[in-house]
Design brief:
Elements (H helix, E strand, L loop, with lengths): L6 H6 E4 L17 E4 L8 H6 L5 H15 L8 E3 L4 E3 L11 E4 L3 H13 L6 E4 L3 H8 L4 E3 L3 H6 L3 E4 L4 H11 L10 E4 L5 H13 L3 E4 L2 E2 L2 H5 L3 E5 L3 H7 L8 E6 L7 H31 L3 H12 L4 H9 L12 H18 L4 H17 L8 H8 L9
Helix pairs in contact: 8-11, 11-12, 11-13, 11-14, 11-15, 11-16, 12-13, 14-15, 15-16
The structure holds NADP nicotinamide-adenine-dinucleotide phosphate.
């Protein structure tokens, strides 16, 4: 079938891969090909064209169906079609221009996400980033395919899709206050919000975003900064299916490894309810690991032996890397990886959700107390893992393990 596609399709469609290297094999082997349709004339590059050997008539017809679907859709962005083993997405800009992506927030999480988005996102133009401290953005962007925006207004006004990941509810509310009031408005833009915030805050953000004529996708993420750097985050998406399809090409294979999709649930807050509930597991894990390592040391078993068990039973889970953060002394650091303030905020949100839902979270209550002690001892440089130091002290051991 190679070379026999209609010329209009050849001009208007091009296939964009989340894993370019697989393009050199065959179309049949591609796991999640993403077809991006834009109304500008974009001919296939030779390497793309040569690899497009559609194995069946059905595969051949998919780009055409998507193209027509996108072309006649009223929404700015559309659409996806799924076969059992392959998923195709279409992004189309009804203004006929290229799709511009922006990312707001260059924290521990944002750094990894931005790196992967700019390096693997197959972007039409350099990623635009904004961070409260502009100097940080400039240092980070040097030598990369990234443009630093001097203001939120500048980043949002130039972009069609706007990702954000900042510390907490107040921070993101402040960002949206500015973003949604830019001159010219935000009609037709898609906002994807990745911070961990209270579900009610997310509901409010969705309300004001939609009132301003834009689409909103709640997209909190699971995974430590190392997972963000490795492009291995798990996204939880909630919002309209069309809006989620718009951001989908930038998730799995770019910034993440999996999406837990709650699309078309009328309550976008559920994505955050899942995120907050999930973080009670992380808090419980750090508590349990800290207690276990303290007991291992006090009982004479030794933390090395306890870690052998962690590796054997939980080797493929976050337990092992978190255990290693304790045994290597990485629970005391100048720049926290999961800042105590953020962990305390997550615990607070979980306890508040539990209260309004008529239940209790005893483990999270204990973790919240330990986090308060961490903050007292270490200030803002405290990390979620510093709970280990608090438990060590409670057992008569020094906060810092000198080994
Ligand atoms: N760290 C983790 O393991 C982890 C995992 C999953 C999800 N999360 C969630 O992801 C979000 C970001 O976490 P992180 O670890 O990247 O945090 P972080 O390293 O502390 O970075 C926070 C980011 O928010 C910005 N910020 C803070 N206050 C602001 C304000 N008032 N207005 C605008 N921007 C503001 C900071 O800007 P400056 O650089 O100017 O300070 C920075 O870019 C949080 O909601 C967190 O709960 C974290």
């Amino acid at each position: 079938m190679k070379g026999s596609r209609p010329s209009s399709l050849k001009l208007d469609c091009y296939i964009r891969q989340q894993a370019r290297r697989t393009l050199t094999t065959s179309f049949r082997n591609l796991l999640r090909p993403t077809i991006v349709v834009s109304s500008r004339n974009h001919s296939l590059t030779p390497s793309f064209r040569d690899s497009l050997a559609y194995p069946t008539g059905f595969d051949y017809i998919i780009p055409l169906v998507l193209y027509l679907q996108a072309r006649f859709s009223k929404s700015l962005y559309t659409s996806s079609i799924t076969k059992p083993d392959q998923e195709y997405n279409v992004t189309i800009s009804n203004s006929g221009k290229m799709v511009q992506v922006a990312f707001l927030g260059l924290g521990n999480m944002g750094q990894g996400m931005i790196h992967n988005l700019s390096a693997k996102g197959n972007l039409d133009s350099p990623l635009i980033i904004w961070n409260r401290s502009t100097k940080k953005s400039e240092a980070f962007a040097a030598g990369k395919n990234i443009t630093v925006a001097p203001s939120i207004e500048d980043a949002v006004s130039k972009s069609d899709i706007i990702f954000s990941c900042v510390s907490n509810d107040d921070a993101i509310t402040g960002v949206y206050d500015i973003a949604l009031k830019i001159p010219g408005g935000v009609k037709g833009k898609v906002f994807s919000e990745c911070s961990t915030i209270h579900p009610d805050t997310t509901r409010q953000l969705e309300k004001v975003t939609k009132a301003a004529g834009a689409e909103f996708v709640a997209s909190p993420v699971f995974g430590a900064p190392a997972a963000a750097a490795a492009g291995a985050l798990i996204f939880v998406t909630s919002g309209s299916k069309a809006a989620i399809d718009t951001i989908r090409p930038y998730l799995v294979g770019v910034m993440g490894r999996q999406v837990i999709d709650l699309s078309d649930d009328p309550d976008v807050g559920k994505a955050l309810t899942l995120k907050i509930t999930g973080n009670t597991i992380i808090l419980g894990m750090v508590e349990a690991l800290s207690e276990g390592h303290v007991l291992a040391e006090k009982s004479g078993l030794g933390t090395e032996n306890f870690e052998k068990f962690i590796a054997a039973l939980f080797g493929q889970s976050p337990y092992l890397p978190y255990s290693k953060r304790l045994t290597t002394g990485d629970y005391v650091r100048e720049q926290p990886l999961f800042a105590v303030d953020l962990a305390a905020k997550d615990a607070r949100h979980a306890l508040s959700l539990a209260k309004t839902s008529g239940t209790t979270l005893p483990v999270t209550e204990i973790a919240a107390k330990h986090l308060a002690s961490v903050k007292e001892e270490m200030g803002v440089s405290g990390d979620i893992t510093s709970i280990y130091g608090i438990l060590r002290e409670a057992a008569g051991l020094p906060f810092i393990d000198k080994k």
